[in-house]
């Protein structure tokens, strides 16, 4: 962000500099002045994003030990590893706003910060790994590509790296489903069942309808967000329909049809009651996901303490 | 660290460089499970060389699987990354080695417990983080010494393994370093971590004798690595303020038993989980 000079040639008030930078599509950087609410919104959103990456490891890691070929096992392990890496980037990016990873994790474990509702659904078959790649990562990319132009520099730069890997994962998921769809009858049925279960939760990933989205207007004004929830959801549906056709799978929506006038696919109503229940903690796996996260953290406490004690001793020894 | 998903492409091998030994009784050579074996122009190893590839491949496959169980459970996010990374390297090694001897998936998913040739050390359950690190320290220190020797390719029998070993030795040096760094931190960390690390080292000590049992067809006698291995382990444990465990490292059950297809009880359950899906859909491709 470059300083904006007022007419008299002096520096403007910080708020004006901030507004001007956002208006000019310049990046806000960690040392720049920013409104408290902008900072708080970003911390909330980036924390939720980081938490989603690390909670999102669980449904997929659930299948690492059962992956049906060594090639698929390697792909899945690499993917789960990437997700841990994305979590690390995003916590680092959030830390530039004056918070810490420990603090954010504590809030996650205490249920005071959220992660994406999608990860509260169980992975019941191998095909779910493909459906997650194709649909869940696909929805995430649709959401995240515009974030590469987000007004906050560290977040935007993290997203550039993350989106590259995510689109790779999405293609792998599609390819996994394609192999199943073209495989035996049982494999095809497994793929269809997974798509049936993951389709609607994937559409919910774009958040509540625009009419009910509480943070949207301000986030759009600050250029944290570039498109509305409904816009992105429509874009995602338009992308998925032809992909489902080439996969040889159907999407579980009887109302899905091309609308010539709009130039988009129309689709059926989303069950927002289910969405709200999952957000309230009553989804199928909310309890398991957060318990496993807490358990990993608690059971690892002695390891982190050991590392800290060792580092302290050796700092003294080296001093 | 970026890891590509296609880690296991078999190294192509000049035919004629290998000196296949004679088939060993009870060898894990895949026989009828391997459609391509023995056909003209086939690049695959046969006999003792194939059995050796399977033995080393099984070590890597099984340890990779155990490390994969950590995904999402590690004490810090950096360790989720590191353990998955090591697991991936090992899986890549396993795929290369098994492909030298047959079809990687048939070998991994369609053999019974008694046909696996991995040492018992790598099949041991993860336990706590210290237990996992102790297992990794013992194994990767050995693996580094072995691959360093195999990479030289100066023995005719080991020539088929030289390209793999040259690549793997860089990976296993990283694995060994990771295990050493954690052994130091845990040993010289808090009283609790020190106790846990010592307990892990003690509990797995009896399985280490098997590292030095002969592997026919390898061209390197693992017993020649033992003195170096002991010296390296002792040096790390000394720096970590830990003691080298006492007691037997071999007995009737642990000396070479895994290499003969005699495993510990948790291994069967591990295989049941690993193979279930593949076996449920005979002939399917994934």
TrEMBL record, chain A:
- Spell out the NCBIfam families in the cross-references: PA_CoA_Oxy1
Enumerate the UniProt keywords alphabetically: Oxidoreductase
- Gene Ontology MF terms: phenylacetyl-CoA 1,2-epoxidase activity
InterPro entries linked: Aromatic_CoA_ox/epox, Ferritin-like, Ferritin-like_SF, PaaA, PaaA_PaaC
**Catalytic activity, EC:** 1.14.13.149
Q: Does the keyword Acetylation apply?
A: no
Print the organism lineage. Answer: Bacteria, Bacillati, Actinomycetota, Actinomycetes, Kitasatosporales
Q: Which organism is it from?
A: Streptomyces lycii
Under SUPFAM superfamilies, the record lists:
Ferritin-like (SSF47240)
Name of the featured protein: 1,2-phenylacetyl-CoA epoxidase subunit A
From TrEMBL, chain B:
Q: Where is this region: Disordered?
A: 1-44
Low complexity bias: where? Answer: 1-37
Output the Gene3D superfamilies linked to this UniProt entry. 1.20.1260.10
Record-linked InterPro entries: Aromatic_CoA_ox/epox, Ferritin-like, Ferritin-like_SF, PaaA_PaaC, PaaC
Q: Which Pfam families match?
A: PaaA_PaaC
What highest taxon heads this organism's lineage? Bacteria
Under the heading NCBIfam families, the entry gives: PA_CoA_Oxy3 (TIGR02158)
Q: Which PANTHER family match?
A: 1,2-PHENYLACETYL-COA EPOXIDASE, SUBUNIT C, PHENYLACETIC ACID DEGRADATION PROTEIN PAA
UniProt protein name = Phenylacetate-CoA oxygenase subunit PaaC
């Amino acid at each position: 962000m470059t300083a904006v000079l007022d007419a008299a040639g002096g520096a403007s008030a910080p708020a004006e500099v901030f507004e001007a930078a956002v208006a000019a599509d310049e990046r806000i950087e960690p040392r720049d002045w920013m409104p408290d609410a902008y900072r708080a919104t970003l911390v909330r959103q980036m924390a939720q994003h980081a938490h989603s990456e690390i909670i999102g490891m669980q449904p997929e890691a659930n299948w690492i030990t059962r992956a049906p070929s060594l090639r698929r096992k390697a792909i899945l392990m690499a993917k789960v590893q990437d997700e841990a890496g994305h979590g690390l980037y995003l916590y680092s990016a959030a830390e530039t706003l004056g918070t810490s990873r420990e603090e954010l994790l504590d809030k996650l474990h205490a249920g005071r910060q959220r992660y994406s509702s999608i990860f509260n659904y169980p992975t019941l078959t191998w095909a779910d790994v493909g459906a997650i790649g194709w649909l869940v990562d696909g929805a995430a990319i649709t959401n995240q590509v515009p974030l590469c132009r987000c007004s906050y520099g560290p977040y935007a730069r993290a997203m550039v790296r993350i989106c590259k890997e995510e689109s790779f994962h999405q293609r792998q998921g599609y390819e996994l489903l394609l192999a199943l769809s073209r495989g035996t009858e049982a494999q095809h049925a497994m793929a269809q069942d997974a798509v049936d279960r993951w389709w609607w939760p994937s559409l919910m990933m774009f958040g509540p309808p625009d009419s009910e989205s509480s943070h949207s207007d301000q986030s759009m004004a600050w250029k944290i967000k570039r498109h509305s929830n409904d816009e992105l959801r429509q874009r995602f549906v338009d992308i998925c329909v032809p992909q489902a056709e080439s996969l040889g799978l159907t999407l579980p929506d009887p109302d899905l049809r091309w609308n010539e006038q709009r130039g988009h696919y129309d689709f059926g109503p989303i069950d927002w009651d289910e969405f709200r229940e999952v957000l309230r903690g009553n989804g199928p796996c909310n309890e398991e996901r957060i318990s496993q996260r807490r358990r990993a953290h608690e059971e690892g406490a002695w390891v982190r303490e050991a590392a800290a004690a060792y580092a302290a001793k050796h700092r003294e020894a080296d001093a | 660290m970026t890891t590509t998903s296609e880690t296991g492409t078999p190294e192509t091998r000049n035919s004629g460089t290998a000196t296949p030994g004679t088939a060993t009784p009870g060898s894990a050579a895949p026989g009828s499970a391997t459609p391509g074996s023995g056909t003209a122009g086939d690049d695959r190893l046969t006999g003792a060389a194939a059995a050796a590839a399977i033995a080393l491949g099984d070590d890597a496959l099984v340890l990779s699987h155990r490390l994969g169980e950590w995904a999402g459970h590690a004490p810090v996010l950096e360790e989720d990354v590191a353990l998955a990374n090591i697991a991936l390297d090992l899986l890549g090694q396993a795929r290369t080695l098994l492909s030298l001897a047959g079809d990687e998936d048939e070998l991994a998913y369609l053999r019974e417990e008694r046909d696996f040739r991995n040492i018992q050390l790598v099949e041991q359950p993860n336990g706590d983080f210290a237990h996992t690190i102790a297992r990794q320290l013992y194994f990767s220190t050995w693996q580094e010494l072995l691959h360093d020797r195999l990479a030289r390719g100066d023995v005719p029998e080991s020539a088929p393994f030289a390209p793999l070993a040259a690549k793997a030795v860089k990976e296993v040096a990283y694995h060994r370093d990771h295990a050493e760094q954690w052994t130091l931190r845990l040993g010289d960390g808090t009283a609790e971590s020190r106790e846990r690390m010592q307990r892990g080292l003690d509990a797995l000590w009896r399985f280490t004798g098997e590292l030095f049992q002969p592997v026919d067809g390898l061209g390197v006698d693992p017993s020649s690595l033992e003195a170096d291995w002991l010296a390296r382990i002792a040096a790390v444990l000394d720096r970590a303020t830990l003691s080298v465990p006492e007691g037997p490292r071999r007995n009737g059950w642990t000396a070479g038993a895994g290499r003969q297809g005699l495993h510990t009880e948790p291994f069967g359950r591990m295989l049941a989980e690993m193979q279930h899906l593949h076996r449920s859909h005979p002939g399917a491709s994934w």
